[in-house]
Design goal:
mainly alpha; Arc Repressor Mutant, subunit A; about 65% helix
């Protein structure tokens, strides 16, 4: 096996930056940000989700320099896509579910573009390998 021209870290960061740009471009015509999409998608199953569960589910995707969860929730509530928060948790309105369906079509098209030229097995193996690498680093950090 020959060594890649650039290391893994380069490709991970490069792909992440490209994905951010591609998804933002895809969603721009709908007036939806990537973070808004992530919240819509996390709530799309139809049940109520507690805020803490939403924070945990979305944590890997959110950065300190981006919008806060409260800002995104506020925008979705203002659009009447999100029911006001309650003790039972957060949920989409009927309009929010319709918006999710419309956005999902575009996101699935974006995913198809990203996966062009890869088999399902190659994608599955890539995710598995990255998961193992992440686990190795987590174990090493925990051991320190």
């Amino acid at each position: 096996m020959s060594a890649p021209a650039r290391p893994l870290g380069y490709w991970l960061k490069h792909l992440d930056n490209l994905l951010e740009r591609h998804v933002e471009t895809t969603l721009a015509g709908l007036g939806v940000s990537r973070r808004e999409w992530q919240v819509l998608n996390a709530l799309a199953d139809g049940g109520r989700v507690r805020r803490a569960g939403l924070v945990d589910a979305l944590a890997p995707f959110w950065t300190e320099d981006g919008p806060t969860l409260d800002e995104v929730l506020g925008r979705l509530t203002a659009r009447e896509w999100l029911l006001p928060a309650s003790d039972e948790g957060l949920a989409l309105t009927e309009a929010g579910r319709a918006a999710h369906t419309e956005v999902r079509v575009r996101v699935e098209s974006t995913r198809a573009t990203v996966l062009t030229g890869l088999t399902g097995e190659q994608y599955t193996e890539t995710v598995r390998v990255l998961s193992v690498m992440a686990g190795n680093v987590e174990a090493a950090l925990a051991a320190r």
